[in-house]
Amino acid sequence: MHFGILHPQLIKQSPILNYYMSVKIYTTPSCVYCKMAKEFFKKNNIEYQELNVALDEKAREDMIQRSHQLGVPVIEINDQVFVGFNRLEIEKALKGLA
Amino acid sequence: MYDLVIIGGGPAGVAAGVYAARKKLKIVLIAESFGGQSLVSDDVQNWIGTVSLSGFDLAKKLEDHLRAQEDIEIIDTDLVSKVEKIKPDVSGAAHFRVTTKGGKTFDTKTVLVASGSRRRKLGVPGEKKFEGKGVVYCSTCDAPIFKDKVVAVVGGGNSGLEAVVDLFPYASKIYLLHRRDELKGDPTTQEEVTSNPKTEVILNAETQEILGDKTVQGLRYKDKKTGEMKELDLGGVFVEVGSVPNGEIVKGLVDLNKFGEIIVNHKTQATSETGIWAAGDITDVLYKQNNISAGDAVKAVLNLYDYLRSIERKVSDTALAHEESALKT
């Protein structure tokens, strides 16, 4: 599948970005939008931590508390919480950090 | 000026894109995403040529096949907002303008509408307020979040039954609410659902309101037999009440049936408006299936290709006639 590629400058910088950027993706194994989100970050060389809320009860509680959301994916970039996977919205947020 | 604008990235849109690209037409395909409604399916076992694959992999394969074509323009993560008729060419053949939500416009000789359908909502108070906060439209995605919760599934068709099955490993109790006096859906899945002690089927139940505070806490329904209002205490409501066709973009331009589906000629996929074709779940096709959508889109492209060639001939004939009459005068 094709996912948006960030500006080359950003990719070049992304090891630096990773240094101060923390990305968490709350997922379930059967959720396709979670897979899309993971592929997007992989393609852009941005490290992320995946939290499978189907197994990890603490992560599930954290996710619900932080996002007030009973649905996945929930994506956290530093302290920004994104509900669902909207590629354009995530790209915008990452460009803001670059 | 494009020869063809394809609206949609499901099996119909992609099949059309592949065929039209091989005909060397000037095409643009506009889709929010690829794969159509099967995208969220865990396991698709009837896509001919593949024994089993996930909706995600099906979407990937479709997109890869489309992108492998030369000279096809693809606009993704955008949606078409309207299709309108513009000034015809010299021979009188219709031209159309397709506008996207992102503000792009494309002028074209023909349009293939393959915009599919989307999940139907209940349309009751509280549904919108609690979307993502206990109201769920993707049971395969979100069932695990409802571990040890009492939940309701609204809708007794196949997708409702499958949502119940998705919830078995997680929810502590599942009410299955259905408007009619008997369940629809496959007998085997019905058997699986009703034989599980976690399930309680409530028939003749018309959902009135989703209740809650920060998240869903319950649901009010009307017992259609007695007229009585009843309430259930719940941690989540899974809505599985069918789909609605995405036909708004061509409303007023082509004929729709009472369900909002585009009426097509089932031999050619032509709509009531010359120059516009439609294929897949957006149409009044009797069976909504991935394989059928792809096949119908192929029919549409072959037919619109003939049409494009005929108007080309008309245009050159008209030009010739003009030239001749100019010579005479």
- The total tally of domains of chain B equals 2
Low-confidence parts of chain B, pLDDT < 50 over ≥5 residues?
none
The biggest beta sheet of chain B is recorded as: 7 strands, mixed
Report the count of strand segments of chain A.
4
Oligomer: heterodimer
**Estimated share of beta-strand residues of chain A:** 15-25%
N→C terminal distance of chain B: 32 Å
Question: What is the number of helical segments of chain A per DSSP (H or I, 4+ residues)?
Answer: 4
- Tell me roughly what share of residues is in helical segments of chain B: 25-40%
Our count of helices of chain B gives 6
The fraction of residues in strands of chain B falls at 25-35%
| Helix content range of chain A | 40-55%
Provide the CATH superfamily of chain A.
Answer: Glutaredoxin
Number of strands of chain B: 17
Which two chains form the greatest contact, residue counts included? A-B, 25 and 33 residues
CATH class of the largest domain in chain B: Alpha Beta
Give the helices and strands of chain A as they follow along the chain. HEHEHEEH
Broad shape of chain B:
elongated
Structural class of chain B: alpha/beta
Integer-rounded radius of gyration of chain A: 13 Å
Description:
The complex is a heterodimer of chains A (98) and B (329). Chain A has a four-stranded mixed beta sheet, sandwiched between helices. In chain A, strand 3 (74-77) and strand 4 (80-83) form a beta hairpin. Chain A contains four helices and four strands. Chain A has one domain: Glutaredoxin, CATH 3.40.30.10. The two termini of chain A are 25 Å apart. Chain A has 98 residues and is of the alpha+beta class. With 329 residues, chain B is an alpha/beta fold. Chain B has two domains: 2-119 and 243-328, FAD/NAD(P)-binding domain, CATH 3.50.50; 135-239, FAD/NAD(P)-binding domain. Chain B has six helices and 17 strands. In chain B, the strands form four sheets. In chain B, strands 1, 2, 3, 4, 5, 6 and 17 form a seven-stranded mixed beta sheet that branches. In chain B, helix 1 runs parallel beside helix 2 (55-67). The radius of gyration of chain B is 24 Å and the shape is elongated. The model of chain B has no long low-confidence stretch (mean pLDDT 94).
